[in-house]
Amino acid sequence: MPNKQYDVVIVGAGVSGCAIARELARYDARVCVVERADDVCCGTSKANSAIIHAGFDAQPGSLMARLNVEGNRLMYEWASELEFAAFPVGSLVVCVSEETRSGLDELMARGLANGVPDLRIIERDELVGLEPHIADEAVAALWAPTGGIVDPFGLTVALAENAAANGVEFLFNASVSAINRNGDAWQVIAGDSTIETRAVINAAGVYADEIHNMVAASNDQLRIIPRKGEYYLLDTTAGQYVRHTVFMLPTAMGKGVLVSPTVHGNLIVGPTATDVDDKESTDTTFEGLAEVAQKSSLTVKNVPLREVITSFAGLRAHQDAHDFVIGEVSEALCFFDCAAIESPGLTSAPAIGVMMAGLVRDRLGLPEKLEGEFVPTRKGYVNLMAITFDEWAELCKKNPAYGNIVCRCCRVSEAQIVEVMHRVPAATSLDAIKRRTGVTMGRCQGGFCSPKIMALMERELGVDPYDITKCGPGSHVLVRESNREGR
Amino acid sequence: METRDIVIIGGGPAGLAAAIAAYDAGCSDVVVLERDTLLGGILNQCIHNGFGLHTFKEELTGPEYAARYVACAEELGVECRLGSMVVDVSSDRCVTVVNPERGLYSIQAKAVVLAMGCRERPRGALNIPGFRPAGIFSAGTAQRLVNIEGQMPGRKVVILGSGDIGLIMARRMTLEGAQVACVAEIMPYSGGLKRNIVQCLDDFGIPLLLSHTVSRIEGKKRVEAVWVSEVDDQLRPIPGTEVRYPCDTLLLSVGLLPENELSREAGVELSPITRGPVVDDSLQTNVEGIFACGNVLHVHDLVDYVSQEAAVAGESAARFVLDQVQESDSTQICLCAEGGVRYTVPTRVCPSRMPDKLTIRFRVANVYRDTFVSMYVGEDRVLHRRKRVMAPGEMEEVVLKKSDVLARPDTSSITITLEGE
User: What is the chain A residue with the closest CA to B103?
Assistant: First the structure.
């Protein structure tokens, strides 16, 4: 017997899954998001360039092109509606040799065809004015003022919280092992749960092929290739080394890496692009990091790599056709793919959410909620770095815990950490708290604050410290004596 | 706005010694701002002994050493505000601080003493490739978990880096029942004190692998093993030399960095070598009325030297407040580090104001045996002393006599260097 029944089950709580959940929450439907990790935003969504692409890259006419440009526009709207950080800092595609200058014109033409506003080619003098550290070889650049940067965790969490506030349920630590047809419905086995649902949406990131192939016909199999991208993240002391997202126009020598500020005030440099077999291989490599360091200098001079505070790798869900796969799977009624969401997937997420919710609404005939039943806004988190001292002083008067700084590098107070443990979905691991508040993301990388955060988790969540994890089951922070249970 | 003569940022060994010295010099309008809920700073988690041999001629534990200064400060009536995090220091010495009870407020100080200490270099700065699982801690974090929280970060341990905290934690984890497989050090020499290598590794049979580093970390959720490789002259792992150590924990003791974010906000000039403020003989930074001492100035090996140095900063701050000593009143001479001397503290000397005997501290760049430390005032060698052994892990000092400087009024620089003979 199924122990849960829904109208729609979304597999995967990444940015796509959460955007779809948020948009489906507009309709009268029981929706559940199932996620194998302990939190939202644990796969591709958490480890990428955190860029809002303007939309000049994708081939005109492709789904990618349409959803990129639409997603770009929606992203800034949603940022104010859902209160997450997204800034239109603008992007530059830098041409480093006269021979390849025509590439800029091509990009510009593509951008115009895709409907990207305000594109302009700028010459070296203007470029140096915008970016004083630009490489000596730079001759011109494509300037896209609608390009920007976004907090991928903040975005995904905002979507999830708003979805949850509007009735969507989340089931974590629930890996989908089987999806079976059961009469008119689908039966999804997720972790210990058996769920019956009218429709399934496959937003499983690098695992979208496995989920797809559970139900698709043998001649309609999908293959997702994990494409690894490695990055360096630099301290905030280097965060203003460039002011815009700097891409390189590919040359015969290959593709460069991007150098960009982040919404957290750091500098990000990367990624590499290496196809791998293992969908779990989010490990960095000597070669990959060396490549990032070497390529950073192609567009920006003397990137201060001694300020590196961490490196990381993410896997893009690449597919040979290189376009998003969004739609109902043939011969699998009410099973929808949201697959091959590689770059510009993060930017496109809002548009993907709207599109997929529309497809499912039409297929299931979902009625819109009554006026006032759907709340489109969500209260964001306090960011002590982004408010004035007077505003901070006011917060302290309301809640003294804003005066207890736990994470000194990123200026995060006890009040903020406690809050995220009590929101829905709740942050219950160190990484989940990190993604929402920024704790441990700074220059000490958790050296000072992690014991203090653990003490707060013990107090607020009532957990034994030895059961606290970094990122869900298996990642316990402390180690019990092997021959003793507990302390 | 509240106004105070001296605001001291940090209530660890440096801040406390500075406060006491300021009192002794006649300035009692002093407030110490400490972010933690108790005084003593990092000493509170250093429960091993070996502190205070120079200052008290006794072997104390960290908390005991701190307690002596806390008691002295209490006796004098120094005001110490706990749970008080300074979030901004302006160049005109306005200090903004936040505290749960008092909220966010500012203090206008006549003088500020920076005594915020240092932090550990994290893993990210090392670029060890691999996953980012649970079980990777800086040695100091592990020390806090074990000694303050009473929690065990792991049971089978590999330590990378032979800084003093790493060596201390090798012993500490062993005493708590963990197995420490080895300490790997990328350099051909240890960055820690000789006595710690003997007492923490040799006495417990823990191997110290010099010229070795961690080349790979296994385990996606929790550390399962680390691979240790020998390195070549360029400090790159040599393929084929790797050895796999099954373990659940990797501790890092790979260097300390002065915490100068506030100093930077105040416009304080920092040395690219020490990463601490550039100071003169009174330990004043380039910003008038802002002084620095302890590990925020440069990383020390022994707390005794922190206390001595901080006393100079505290006294200087008091003199600045009471006498209104102006830096612009007097010319300064540059102190240059050469020939194997990595840096000196201070880097500027004011001949008219300097004490009769000025202690200059420095570190060397490599291991040197039977080498001379020389000091030149202008072209004249005023000091030439043989040292049997010098190593980067141990701080060195020389004394500059005021008379040697005043005897050479046209001198534009003083140089400290190492010489073969």
Answer: A396
